[in-house]
């Protein structure tokens, strides 16, 4: 005989107590992974070939610290070129003009279809191809510019990066519904006002995460500028020191440590930047939205968070983001 349901009308059923399943395989796998990690770490710490004494001596060497600044400069300048030129190429790619659209497509095809190392080698050899540029009534010497390997390094990296940033920007802009643009035009906004106030704030949620990944990737890609050749960044400087000592392993560990440290800082910055541009995209409901759902379902939903005046633990920014 079944037990009669004594719950009041409109209430939700009480959840059953669920006993979690045991997963012994996961425990065994975790133990094996921890054992392998401990075995590798202990073996590395006790092996003389790693040269930990040399590693400690050169970790904060002034030459490596200066090379880290050069690496950051290359990264920032290359990303600036990549973002600005990539945005321009994205606009050309979405242009109704077939010439502009075709030019953008060919640009992306070349710079995405060839390895960045090959491009950097080409930029390094550009000085042997061009000595001056004729502009019709005069000749402009470019030898001084093409001998500056630092400039060639970040220009080559930036042009390669712009091809990838163009696709990222295009994807972000095209993710915004057309109705948003049409509504902005109906309100009398200009094209620039529509992009600045309507399209870009929404597109940034799509653009920021892959751009952060590209920035971190660019930091590591700077190790390839030795192809220009430019050896003033972290990998190039640590390699020069290693060749002088005939001991490459500890200097590679020094370079890896610096890359990891800078990358970790950039990842933290990326996290907070993504959090900033994701405001207003949470599933937290205001009191008005909750009332509308209650009227539709007959009972308050159990899987939502209520936000309203007087709700404890809710900041003013959260309330504004859900209006």
TrEMBL record:
InterPro entries linked: AA_ABC_transptr_permease_3TM, ArtM/GltK/GlnP/TcyL/YhdX-like, MetI-like, MetI-like_sf
Keywords: Amino-acid transport, Cell membrane, Membrane, Transmembrane, Transmembrane helix, Transport
Any single GO BP term: amino acid transport
GO cellular component, as recorded: ATP-binding cassette (ABC) transporter complex
Domain ABC transmembrane type-1: 68-272
Residues passing through the membrane, by range: 27-47, 67-92, 104-125, 252-273
Keyword presence, Transport: yes
Main location: membrane
UniProt cross-references to Gene3D superfamilies, sorted A to Z: MetI-like
Membrane topology: Multi-pass membrane protein
Cell compartment(s), UniProt: Cell membrane
GO MF annotation terms: transmembrane transporter activity
Pfam families: BPD_transp_1
Keyword Plastid assigned: no
Family statement drawn from the similarity comment of this UniProt entry: Belongs to the binding-protein-dependent transport system permease family.
Protein name: Amino acid ABC transporter membrane protein, PAAT family (TC 3.A.1.3.-)
Source organism per UniProt: Corynebacterium variabile
């Amino acid at each position: 005989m079944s037990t009669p349901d004594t719950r009041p009308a409109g209430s939700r059923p009480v959840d059953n107590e669920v006993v979690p399943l045991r997963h012994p395989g996961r425990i065994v796998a975790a133990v094996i992974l921890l054992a392998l990690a401990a075995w590798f770490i202990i073996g590395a710490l006790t092996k003389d070939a790693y040269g930990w004494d040399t590693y400690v001596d050169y970790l904060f060497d002034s030459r490596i610290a200066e090379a880290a600044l050069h690496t950051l400069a290359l990264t920032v300048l290359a990303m600036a070129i990549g973002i600005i030129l990539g945005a321009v190429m994205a606009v050309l790619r979405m242009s109704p003009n077939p010439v502009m659209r075709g030019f953008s497509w060919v640009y992306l095809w070349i710079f995405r279809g060839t390895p960045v190392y090959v491009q950097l080698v080409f930029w390094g050899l550009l000085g042997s191809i061009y000595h001056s540029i004729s502009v019709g009534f005069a000749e402009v010497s470019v030898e001084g510019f093409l001998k500056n390997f630092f400039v060639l390094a970040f220009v080559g990296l930036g042009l390669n990066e712009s091809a990838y940033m163009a696709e990222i920007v295009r994807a972000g802009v095209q993710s915004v519904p057309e109705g948003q643009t049409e509504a902005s035009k109906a309100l009398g906004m200009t094209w620039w006002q529509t992009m600045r106030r309507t399209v870009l704030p929404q597109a940034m949620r799509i653009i920021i995460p892959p751009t952060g990944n590209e920035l971190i990737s660019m930091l590591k890609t700077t190790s390839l500028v030795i192809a220009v050749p430019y050896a003033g960044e972290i990998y190039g400087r640590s390699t020069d020191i290693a060749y002088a000592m005939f001991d490459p392993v500890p200097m590679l560990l020094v370079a890896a440590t610096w890359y990891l440290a800078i990358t970790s800082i950039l990842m933290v910055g990326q996290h907070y930047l993504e959090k900033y541009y994701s405001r207003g995209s949470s599933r937290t409901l205001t009191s008005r939205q909750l009332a509308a759902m209650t009227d539709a379902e007959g009972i308050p939903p159990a899987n939502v968070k209520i936000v309203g005046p007087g709700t404890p633990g809710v900041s003013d920014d959260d309330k504004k983001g859900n209006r």
